[in-house]
Amino acid sequence: MSDNDWVAGISKKDAGRYSRQLLVDDFGVSGQKNLKNSRVLIVGAGGLGCPVATYLGAAGVGTLGIIDYDHISLDNLHRQVAYKEAQIGHSKAKGLADNIKLQNSDVNTVVHNVSLDSSNAMDIFKNYDIVCDCTDNVATRYLINDVCVLLNIPLVSGSALRWDGQISVYHYGPECPCYRCLFPSPPDPNSVTNCNEGGVLGPIVGTIGSMQALEVMKIAANVDSTLAGKLLLFDGREGKSRTIRLRKRDTKCAVCGDNPTITAPVDYVLFCGAGAHDKIENLKLLEPTDRLNVEEYRDIRGAQKQFLLDTRPPVEFEIAHLPEAINITLNECRSLTPHDLSSRLEVDSNTSDVYVICHRGNDSQRAVLLLREKLNSIRFRDIIGGYEEWALKINDKFPLY
Where along this sequence does the record place binding of ATP (predicted)? Predict the structure, then answer.
C-alpha cells in the first residue's frame, strides 16, 4: 500500500485547521475551497471592519483587501477590538492586516492605505469578487454601491449606531436591488448622524460585522440562503432582530436599471452634499459677530453671572460640563415655547447675553438660530468649537470624548 492510497478533497493542513467548519452541512470541502479562492475587499477598518476581517481571515479567505486611510486612536479601542494600545497612531489598514497575518499566515492581505474616491475605486475593486461596506458615511456608500454594480460585484453592507444595527446584501442576483434602488436620492446631510456624534456600543458593531463575515462566507460558498433582497434589523437594547423583504431591483434605477444613466463613478461629495468621511463637519451658520471663541468666554467668566446654555443630550451633559451650564437640548430649543425657555434659563428683562455651547460647535449654532426667533430681546452667541475646543485650549483636564 502506497503513501497516497486515499482520496483527499482538501490538504492535510487545511483539514486540520478548518475542520470544524468543514463539518458544517452546505459548506464542507467545496465551501472551504471556494472561500480559499475568493478575493474579498473590506472598505473601512473600523468597528465593522475589524470583526469582518478577523473572522474572514480566521476562516481562510484567500485574499483579503483592506481600505482605510485613517489612523488608530484611543477612542477607537472600545469597539475596534482588533487593535491594541501599542498600535495607537498607526495605520488602521496595515494594523488590521498585520493582525490577520498573525492569526492566519496563509491569508494574502492587501493594504490600500488610501482615501477611496471616484478616481481610484474602479481600479481597486476590479481585483475582488465580493465587497464589504464597513464605512460610516453616505457619500462613500453610494460610491461603493455604484462601483460594485458597474463591475458586477455583490456587496455586503452593514451599519451600526447606538444600540442598533442593520445588514443587507445588494446586487446579488437578477432581482436583487442595489443601494441606489432603495435610496435614489441622498438624505439631508444635516439629518445624518454617525457614531462620532451618536455613539455606538462595541458589541453592536461586533454583531453586525460578524454577520457581514457570515454573508461573505455564504456568497463565497454558493450557499443559497443569503440576505440578498432582505434587510436584517438588530435591536441590541431589546435583544430582538427582524428581517424584512426589500422591493425588487428598480428597472429605472440610475445605475443598475435597464437603461442606466450612471456608467462611471460620479462626484459623490457633490451628489450627497457632504464629505466622503466620517469626520465631523465644522459648520458656519452664523455671522462672526454672533460667535466667540473659548478664550473670549474664559475671559468674561466670573465678571458677572453668566447664562450658559448647553444644547447636548443629557447623556453627554453627564460626562462633563461647566458648572454654570443649563442643559436645554437642541430638540428642546425647537419644541419649547418662549415662556418655557425663559423659565428654564432663568432669564429676566435685564438679561442681555446668553452663550450657547455644545460638543463641537455645530448644534450650538443651530440652537442660536432657533432661539433668537423665540426670544428676540436676548442676544444669543455661540461658543466656537464647543467643549472640545475648551478641553484643547483652556482646560486639558476636561474630558474629551
Answer: 47, 68, 75-79, 92, 136-137
Q: Does the annotation place 206 within a ligand binding site?
A: no
Enumerate the domain spans of the chain. 37-272, 288-393
The answer on whether 77 is annotated among ligand-binding residues is yes
pTM of the entire predicted model? 0.77
Q: Are 123 and 148 in contact (CB under 8 A)?
A: no
Reported as a single tens digit per residue, the pLDDT across 117-161 is: 999 999 999 999 999 999 989 999 999 999 999 999 999 999 999
User: Cα–Cα distance between 95 and 160 in angstroms, integer?
Assistant: 22
Class of domain 288-393: alpha beta
Q: Which residues are catalytic?
A: 195, 358
Position 35 pLDDT exceeds 80? yes
Count the Cβ atoms, other than its own, within 10 Å of residue 59.
Answer: 22
What's the pLDDT score for residue 258? 96
Residue pair 167/194 in contact (Cβ under 8 Å)? The answer is no
Q: What average pLDDT does this structure show over 162-177? A: 96
Q: How far apart are the C-alpha atoms of 57 and 96, rounded to whole Å? A: 10
The three cell numbers locating residue 56: 474572514
The answer to the question of whether 68 is labelled as a binding residue is: yes
Domain 37-272 sits in CATH 3.40.50.720: yes
Cell of 33: 475551497
DSSP-derived pairing of the beta strands 39-43 and 353-357: unpaired
Say if residue 79 carries a ligand binding annotation.
Answer: yes
Per-residue pLDDT, 29: 95
Cα distance between residue 189 and residue 125, in whole Å: 27
Q: C-alpha distances in angstroms, 193 versus 137, 190, 247?
A: 9, 8, 25
More confident residue, 347 or 225: 225
